[in-house]
Amino acid sequence: MPEAENAxxxxxxxxxxxxxxxxxxxxxxxxxxxPEPNGYLHIGHAKxxxxxxxxxxxxxxxxxxxxxxxxxVKEEEEYVESIKRDVRWLGCDWEDRLYFASDYFEQMxxxxxxxIEAGKAYVCDLSPEQTREYRGTLTRPGRNSPYRDRSIxxxxxxxxxxxxxxxxxxxxxxxxxxxMAHPNLNMRDPVMYRILHAPHHRTxxxxxxxxxxxxxxxxxxxxxxxxxxICTLEFENHRPLYDWFLDQLHVHHPQQIEFARLxxxxxxxxxxxxxxxVRERHVxxxxxxxxxxxxxxxxxxxxxxxxxEFCRRVGVAKFDSVIDIAxxxxxxxxxxxxxxxxxxxxxxxxxxxxxxxPENQDEELDAINNPExxxxxxxxxxxxxxxxxxxxxFREDPPRKFFRLAPGREVRLRYAYxxxxxxxxxxxxxxxxxxxxxxDPATRGGDAPDGRKVKGTIHWVSAxxxxxxxxxxxxxxxxxxxxxxxxxxxxxxxNLNPQSLVVLPGCPVEPSLGTAQPGDRFQFExxxxxxxxxxxxxxxxxxxxxxxxxxxxxxxxxxxxxNSRPEH
RNA sequence: UACCCGGUGGUGUAAUCGGUAACACACCAGGUUUUGGUCCUGGCAUUCCUGGUUCGAGUCCAGGCCGGGUAGCCA
Length: 568
Hints:
By secondary structure, the protein is α/β, with parallel strands linked by helices.
């Protein structure tokens, strides 16, 4: 896939270009992707990852992977590993720059002591509830804590004892002494440290006080010599505090820049909601192919190249936008169209018997592996008297513009012969269970020597040679573009799409698929792109539908149906 | 009702000292085709509003309107 041609610079690139021009950072560009290891990464994180690593690459700089592990009660080693895997999968390389905020705890503590000594921080004994009360509201100023004017000596002593574990959780905090009447609530003496007697996944029980995000994050950036600290819009109000801490300490001071996070139609992106979907079993897990997680996309069969191209096209700005999921689907198709081998498989089989084809005969026909890539070559596909075709490819009473099979009508079986439908066999219930056809031996390979044309070409699988596969058809997880668009009293779960997963067991597929491995991607001709699920391990073939092909016919048919419907 | 940030077609992103609104997706209409796929062609916005500055404003100024964020000892 052609990546990042000379696209116009987004506003962050513009800032960097200007900085380079003025020599602000001595020509350096150093970014970082700083996830908290408290969950799985989703495509919104992919935007951030690609932005940060992309900037570094574009301007000859570096990008760190840093785990912002300052809250031990929410974080786990398992998440660290999954995040590393996902970042790598996207094609980003942090080389030797893997860092953890927890490695800086000692330095952060020393800086906190420095702030106390400068009279800029104090130990506060207010309870969490009292702290909230004293903070005031959006429209009312806060009040000073009664502990705000403790002596430096007392603060130093108390802070040391907080670290030593003398006090219970929630009993005291270390706060910055700024301004309780500040219009920005983040500046009303924010908490820097809280007491948390909780084991940390990396530091164990070495600490029982942990730094808050606002205190820690700028220090982490500073320690790592970051130049541009890029985060999402909701941290805009935190920037004055980010700047304040760094200014007080007179240390390296990166520039914080905020951009809009990625939102997609027909899905949710918040960690809380994704966690709920998993916990309440609306999906099979974090890597359920319907999830917008990186692991879900991967299992779905989406390629890293498609995600990269998608994020590139989405752009970077400060406008709170919602991207049409159709753009992602387009990027997936565009990539897979160029790379996925074609294959034939039938989702909803209808048996066809070629009456004039000898009972015990069979033969192999040549099929093109990928018309977009001549180098992909050809393969043999077996043919015999009994075949399966798609139920959708036959209509006893065909509507206008239906080019497929119908009684008396002739179509082409892809790479095989022209066949004409001569009979329809039904069961007692009146359902079509089998078709009788005749074939024209002269049309072998799909062309008629007499120049005869057919309107339709359909796919098929030889009944005798077919392999059986379970196919999972995935659709949008939610049935509305905005899952939060619900009546009063309901929530996004009310919009869960009951059809988001349809499993079709035992679908006949061509025998060349016998060697397919988990992760392999194919285009099932005329249907869509599918990939082999890891569940196939036991020798049983399981496919996930990544995305359908564009389907002009179903669109047309739907429109005709609507038009023929009586008015009002 | 406080502070901060935004507002260009159905959806996004551009227009870099103010100079005749570009690209993509979606949608619509055609063409090609052994995938109703791909590919190709065409259609689809007077830039939230009102004033102002200017020969000229999406870009600058003023006022308004609308949307988002913020009251964790989460990040």
